[in-house]
Amino acid sequence: GVHAGDVCVKVPPGTLVRELLTQKLAGELRTNGERMLVAKGGRGGRGNAAFMTARNTAPKIAEHGEPGAQRWLTLELRLVADVGFLGLPNAGKSTLL
């Protein structure tokens, strides 16, 4: 409804948002605290107060609102490793991986 709060999903930086079926990129969250709107809410309806007149002070009519957007999404975390191994040949660096 009009008084409902937003639904926020907290994800780490570097998260890719893709459409589930087409795998099309919908967006990327790069920095901490960045926000992205993925599905817009619907328009609220008019209640009976909108139809009130001087003659009809309690109307029994109201209009329904429109539904919001629905999407199926996947969240993909992109990890970047900043690690390097230095050492002598045959020193066992591969066993650490």
Main beta sheet strand tally, sense and closure? 3 strands, antiparallel
Instruction: Bin the helical content.
Output: under 10%
The assigned structural class equals mainly beta
Mean pLDDT: 84
Number of helices: 1
Strand proportion, as a percent range, falls in: 15-25%
- The order of strands across the largest sheet is 2-1-3
- Sketch the topology as an H/E string, one letter per element: EEEH
Computed Rg: 26 Å
| C-alpha termini separation | 52 Å
Number of distinct beta strands: 3
Query: Which parts are unreliable, with pLDDT below 50 for 5 consecutive residues or more?
Result: none
Rough outline: rod-shaped
Provide structural commentary:
By secondary structure, this protein is mainly beta. Helix content is 4%, strand content 15%. It has 1 helix and 3 strands, in the order E-E-E-H. The protein has one helix at 93-96; strands at 15-19, 25-29, 73-77. It has a 3-stranded antiparallel β-sheet, with no helix packed on it. Strand 1 and strand 2 form a beta hairpin. The longest helix has 4 residues, at 93-96. The model has no long low-confidence stretch (mean pLDDT 84).
